[in-house]
């Protein structure tokens, strides 16, 4: 009996011993290739992943790809952006055509459990709403009984729409198409009475209309839409890297570290927790299979979470989306990162 107890104690203690970081297949491939293949939207999601007139990718999700490239390769420009329709996105990740997705994919139980993917955190907390023309006179989703609704097929948005109308005992006609671009075009052409998507997406696509001021987003939010980067389950080391890249953006905002000031902070700070985070003390980068200054490279690439959000989606952008719950936990939001220790 005592021998068995001792064996279990020894085994349990061994399980807690530090394990050297072992690069998995994806992390190895990215390092060998020298480029991160990042799946994004088709380039028309204003504020998230937009292809501008000069051929440059801009937006929150495009910059998150750059942050991951900076963490792994020390170079925020070492990204191959792969534009994907939603219907092809998950298959592209499964096949290895892309290393990760950063294109507004909602984290759900079935996707998590059935597709062989992992969501490496949540970088945007959103919810589903409706975009309508102001001329319609509609001011609430409960006035949409009998309406035709444009929606992208094969998405959680389509399922949430059905749940909402069923719960409310209302009828509707779904106008299903393969992409948000088609939906927004149908709304503008009068082929549907409303377009439904995440509120952030509605704010983005509304800007692409010929007269954005003629349309409004209804106040009703009918679902939870946690959006985040998606990776395959076969490489937990790569998942850790993507996840901690997101955490680095949040921690940087907590510490008040900015794109322009992080290098000086790394060289001068005496705060123990900040020194660990910025690689001035300890070997925390090595635990991820990264250089110790990986977090400095991430923040230099995109700024902290607040800088990134406000520049691409918030007060400094055309989308003008309020941060809402996408604020730090200390400011009443949902953003919270584990400690670097």
Describe the fold and architecture:
The protein is an alpha/beta fold and 341 residues long. It has 2 domains: 22-125 and 227-331, Periplasmic binding protein-like II (D-Maltodextrin-Binding Protein, domain 2); 128-223, 3-Layer(aba) Sandwich (D-Maltodextrin-Binding Protein, domain 2), CATH 3.40.190.10. Helices cover 40% and strands 17% of the residues. It has helices spanning 2-15, 25-33, 60-73, 86-95, 109-114, 156-168, 180-188, 199-206, 236-255, 262-268, 272-277, 284-287, 294-302, 305-312; strands spanning 36-40, 44-45, 49-51, 57-58, 79-83, 100-101, 117-119, 124-126, 128-133, 147-152, 172-177, 194-198, 215-217, 225-227, 230-232. Strands 11-10-12-9-13 form a 5-stranded mixed beta sheet, sandwiched between helices. The chain has a 3-stranded parallel beta sheet with strand order 5-1-6, with helices on both faces. A 3-stranded antiparallel beta sheet has the order 2-3-4. Helix 3 packs across helix 9 (236-255), helix 3 packs antiparallel against helix 13 (294-302) and helix 9 crosses helix 13 (294-302). The longest helix is centred in the last third of the chain and has 20 residues, at 236-255. It is globular. The two termini are 37 Å apart. Mean pLDDT is 92; it is low at 5-17.
């Amino acid at each position: 009996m005592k021998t068995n107890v001792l064996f279990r104690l020894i085994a349990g203690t061994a399980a807690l011993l530090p394990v050297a970081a072992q690069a998995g297949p994806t992390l190895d491939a990215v390092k060998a290739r020298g480029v991160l293949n990042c799946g994004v939207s088709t380039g028309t999601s204003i504020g998230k992943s937009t292809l501008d007139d000069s051929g440059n990718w801009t937006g929150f999700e495009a910059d998150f790809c750059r942050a991951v490239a900076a963490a792994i390769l020390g170079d925020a420009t070492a990204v191959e952006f792969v534009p994907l329709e939603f219907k092809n996105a998950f298959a592209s990740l499964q096949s290895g055509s892309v290393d990760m997705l950063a294109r507004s994919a909602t984290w759900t139980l079935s996707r998590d459990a059935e597709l062989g993917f992992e969501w490496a955190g949540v970088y945007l907390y959103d919810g589903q709403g409706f975009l309508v023309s102001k001329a319609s006179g509609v001011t609430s989703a409960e006035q949409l009984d009998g309406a035709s609704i444009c929606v992208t097929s094969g998405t959680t948005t389509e399922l949430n729409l059905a749940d909402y109308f069923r719960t409310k005992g209302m009828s509707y006609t779904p106008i299903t198409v393969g992409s948000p671009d088609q939906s927004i075009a149908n709304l503008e052409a009068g082929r549907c009475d409303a377009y439904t998507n995440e509120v952030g997406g509605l704010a983005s696509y509304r800007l692409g209309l010929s007269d954005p001021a003629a349309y409004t987003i209804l106040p009703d939010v009918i679902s939870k839409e946690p959006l985040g980067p998606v990776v395959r389950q076969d490489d937990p080391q790569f998942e850790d890297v993507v996840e901690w890249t997101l955490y680095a953006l949040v921690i940087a905002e907590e510490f008040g570290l900015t794109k322009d000031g992080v290098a000086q902070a790394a060289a001068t700070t005496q705060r123990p927790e900040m020194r660990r985070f910025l690689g001035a003390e300890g070997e925390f980068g090595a635990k991820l299979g990264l250089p110790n200054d990986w977090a400095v490279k991430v923040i230099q690439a995109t700024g902290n979470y607040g800088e990134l959000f406000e520049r691409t989606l918030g007060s400094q952008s055309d989308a003008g989306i309020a941060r809402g719950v996408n604020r730090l936990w200390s400011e009443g939001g949902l953003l919270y990162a584990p400690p670097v220790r």
